[in-house]
């Protein structure tokens, strides 16, 4: 296995093309990143791509990367549905000794995500399965209040290559 390049090099390379996008700021953190975004389809696409780039560089398997991207998309989507387009969010993705942490902070400490009774295999339902998918991919997710509102904290189980 080849050594992983320094995180700042990866982030610089991965975010070089997004530095001119309004509402998108990335900072490194150990084994991952924190992205401060103004929620939009373009910024979600960029943070998903950054997630893939960073997790692959950290030695995560493709299925773990896909799961982390799906969890991230569901959590960001829930925030946008609750608060509208352009809500300010902080998205953290980083590798831990137990898997991949995916945390999404939003500005409202009062509104908590709710699971709907929609079965995951429902052929008729068009919405309502997101938190059910998060339950499957990141069991034990939870919500806590934070300095900027609330934080939904998830961990996608995986074994990092540096364990």
Automatic annotation (TrEMBL):
Keywords, comma-separated and alphabetical: Kinase, Serine/threonine-protein kinase, Transferase
A single GO molecular function, which one? protein serine/threonine kinase activity
Keyword Transferase among UniProt keywords = yes
- Does the record's keyword annotation contain Kinase? yes
Task: Identify the domain of life.
Answer: Bacteria
Q: InterPro entries, alphabetically?
A: Anti-sigma-factor_SerPK, HATPase_C_sf, HATPase_dom
Q: Which Pfam families match?
A: HATPase_c_2
Among PANTHER family, the record links this protein to: ANTI-SIGMA-F FACTOR RSBW (PTHR35526:SF3), ANTI-SIGMA-F FACTOR RSBW-RELATED (PTHR35526)
Q: What name has this protein been given in UniProt?
A: Histidine kinase/HSP90-like ATPase domain-containing protein
